[in-house]
Amino acid sequence: YSGTNQTLSLLTISNQATDTLDATGWTIYFNNVGTAEITGPDTALAGIGFINGDFFSLSPRQGWKPLAPGDSVQLRVLSRRLKNMTDLPKGFYLVDDGHPEGTALPLVIKPFAQADSLEIGLAARIYAQNETITDVSVSALLPVLPTPVAYAYTTGVFKLDPTVPIITDAAFEPEASYLQSELAKVLDRVPEIAKAKQGKALVLRQKAGGNAEGYSLTVDTTGVVIEAATRAGAFYGIQTLKNLLPPTSWADKQPAIAIPGITLTDAPQFAHRAVMLDVARNFQTKEQVMKILDLLALYKVNIMHFHLTEDEAWRLEIPGLPELTDVGAKRGHTLDDARRLMPSYGSGPDADNATGSGFYSRADYIELLQYAAARHIRVIPEIETPGHARAAIKSMDARYASYLAKGDSAAASQYLLRDLEDQSAYRSVQHWNDNVINVAVPSAYVFLEKVVDELIAIYKEAGAPLETIHFGGDEVPNGVWERSPAVRRLLAADRSVPHTDDLWHYYFNRINKLLSARGLYLSGWEEIGMKKAVVNGRPRMVVEPRFARENFHTDVWANQGANVDLAYRLANAGYKVVLTNVTNFYIDLAYNESFYEPGQYWGGYVDIEKLFRFVPYDYYRSLEEKASGERLTAAGRANIVGLQAPLWSEIITSPERMEYLLLPKLLGFAERAWAADPAWASESNERKTKALYAADWSAFLNALGKRELSRLDHYGGGYQYRIPTAGVAQRDSK
Ligand code: NAG
Fold first, then answer.
1. CA distances from 553 to 271, 522, 569, 636, 637 (A)
2. CA–CA separation, 167 and 331 (whole Å)
3. Which end of the chain has fewer CB within 10 Å, C or N?
């Protein structure tokens, strides 16, 4: 039963084993998003205890009767309101004398009747929404998504077959081999790369001038010509050519493929078109990341922001700091020993859990960087600090303990990330009380410098570009550092840091210097450009212009409440801004309010239209509720460097789930990041805006539904996607 704020659920524990579950001597552990308690008379039977993060225990109380094989017991549990399946507890396992390492308990979920009745209203609303979409005939579809700058279909069809060679200017040789390998997937023989043009050909030609990533493309009966100034431009011309092939071409190799004649010119609206992958909360293999990189390239995304470190894991091998991956990349049953981290997000007792544990070796990462670079995708690594850093902190604690045991106290504390005497008390947004690096201990900088230098070396060896390292900065909880002797010593010794609140700038100043000394610039979440202040008697975060001139890049995400205009305030103050708005771009948010739809919803629901309708230079127009605030100045406008869609992975426990959340939302994102601002984005007459928008949205959705989904079925072995605009969630979604 769900009320406005709470849900009462029944937890049934049934003994399917052959032994009796005794009255004492066992504990069941599980993960849950908020606190939950056993309620009513059942409190006599068992109690739920909070451990840390999202980790809980359930243990018997005096009233518990031994549970014979085949018997079950029901416990009433009160929790915050469970709105969708993502809110349900998971990762149950039992620890007792017979199972000291824990044994996973299968979980069966039985949704309550109320959940189904909600689906009916939702279906009706979506049905009405779908009725406004007009039909576009297949011959009039947009030729390619994201929408190109200009195009015209011409008569005449080009018959592509393996005898047609690829002819390239020297500058585009790598792109020519890429094209060759892509065509090898659709043609039954591999076309040649030839020197001179005789007859039909696929031509890659360098032509100076124009946008750095722009290109032009012509298809006629004699072949295909792609012209571009840069390798990136040629690469995007090739992506368009791939998109012009009938989607089923990717299903089977064929002797020939017909491509309709077209002339097309194109260039991106933004130079920074980023998708963020969080592989820390749940891990994804190198192969799966490569599969995603192929998809990003197909839709002209050029940056992968790689969220490699978190409270719940550290996913990259750093030579010289083996604990980061020996301990920090492993989750399994523990209440905190020095071998692994406790379970999170349902990862369970098994330290070999495929998404709870795992990391990229240095060689894996180099391979990923090279794979991305060949697809003109830059990989921005994120090292989350000073908050969201529990895995690193625990790993360095483990290192400390092992060197101390060997009697080497200098080596023990070399990279320590906390003040051992710190008495500060806090809880992070994700409920950790031990996830913030102490920025006053000198060893923290020794650690960060080591990580930065190793990262630089990895990129160098891969031959991949590295311009910035993202240092996180989000969600540092109140209360940190306040009762730390190391902080007190720093405040006393350094006049530039008069107060704990000034530690923020002390810290990012040092990180900035560390990076700029190595020719890199600093990126972070919006908080790196802000400071704590008191406004109208209330504590509030305000823009701190101090670093604006240092070329900091901020990813502005929490555009809600008093911060609805924060992105524009930061841009106007001089910060380079990547619009990462939770309300429109957080693709980890559930598609809609269906109980069966996986995803978070703290920033609202995000379906494909939320991404499609985003207006970068006036995003108040894109919000569900009327909002206004500071507007972009001319200088501020120049500081909007691009757009970003993050995919946080708290609930992404399989590659299928990852693709389901990413697709087809990614296409809505690519449209806004690449295509020019549509006419409806700046039209002031409301009636005209609506009409222009309706036509555009229909054009986009028809191209998506009548062509792109079929491509996603076949391209790269096929991707899982959610059917766009359909009201009721696909219940078989893993
Ligand atoms: C925010 C957190 C992030 C979390 C996400 C889920 C940012 C910058 N921080 O609370 O750690 O995974 O939301 O949507 O987004």
1. 14, 6, 14, 13, 14
2. 52
3. N
Six token digits for residue 622: 């894109």
Q: Pick from 353, 313, 361: which is nearest to 333 by CA?
A: 353
Distance CA 341, CA 252 (A): 45
Choose between 732 and 447: higher pLDDT.
Answer: 447
pLDDT digits (tens, 9 = 90+) for 185-199: 999 999 999 987 679
Give 522's strand partners.
469
In which residue are the tokens 């080596």 written? Answer: 411
How far is Cα of residue 1 from the mean position of the Cα atoms in its chain? 33
Distance separating alpha carbons of residues 123 and 130, to the nearest angstrom: 10
What is the rounded distance in angstroms from the CA atom of residue 346 to the CA atom of residue 343?
7
Please choose from 384, 474, 556, 606 the residue to mutate so as to test ligand 1's pocket, defined by most ligand atoms within 8 A of CB.
474
21 beta partners = 67
Closest residue to atom 10 of ligand 1, CA basis: 429
- Please provide residue 548's backbone torsions phi and psi, each rounded to the nearest 5 degrees: -55, -35
**For the CA of 650, the nearest atom of ligand 1:** 12
Q: Which of 285, 241, 234, 271 is nearest to 658 (CA)?
A: 285
Q: pLDDT tens for residues 525-566?
A: 999 999 877 788 877 778 998 888 899 999 999 999 889 999
Q: Name which residue sits closest to atom 8 of ligand 1, judged by CA.
A: 474
Q: Which atom of ligand 1 is nearest to the CA of 388?
A: 11
430 CA → ligand 1 middle, Å: 9
The tokens describing 108, both together, are: 């069966």
CATH topology of domain 150-266: Chitobiase; domain 2 (3.30.379)
CATH number listed for the domain at residues 272-682: 3.20.20.80
Closest CA to 418 of 439, 445, 402: 439
DSSP 307-359: E-B-SS-B-B--TT-THHHHTTT-B-S-SS-SS-BPP-TT--S-TT-TTTS--
Structure tokens at 263: 């002339």
Q: How far is the CA of 157 from the centre of ligand 1 (A)?
A: 49
Give the residue, by CA position, lying nearest to ligand 1 atom 3.
Answer: 648
CB 95 within 8 A of CB 41: no
Confidence at 726, pLDDT banded by 50, 70, 90: low
**CATH 3.20.20.80 domain extents, the chain:** 272-682
CB 231 within 8 A of CB 171: yes
Q: How far away, in angstroms, is 275 Cα from ligand 1 center?
A: 14
Residues 168/204, Cβ–Cβ less than 8 Å: yes
C-alpha–C-alpha distance, residues 13 and 46, integer Å = 11
Catalytic residues: 475
pLDDT digits (tens, 9 = 90+) for 643-655: 999 999 999 999 9
Instruction: List the structure tokens of 29.
Output: 């552990």
Structure tokens of 27?
């504990």
CATH number of 6-110: 2.60.40.290
Q: How far apart are CA 164 and CA 176, in angstroms?
A: 13
d(CA 129, CA 726): 10
β-bridge partners, 556: 579
Question: Where are the domain boundaries for CATH 3.30.379.10 in the chain?
Answer: 150-266
pLDDT digits (tens, 9 = 90+) for 337-384: 789 999 999 999 999 999 999 999 999 999 999 999 999 999 999 999
Give residue 546 CA to ligand 1 midpoint distance, Å.
Answer: 25
CA-nearest residue, atom 13 of ligand 1: 648
Three-state secondary structure call for residue 539: strand
Percent of the chain with pLDDT over 90: 88
Q: What is the pLDDT of residue 577?
A: 98
CATH 2.60.40.290 occupies which residues in the chain?
Answer: 6-110
Distance CA(577)–CA(496), nearest Å, equals 28
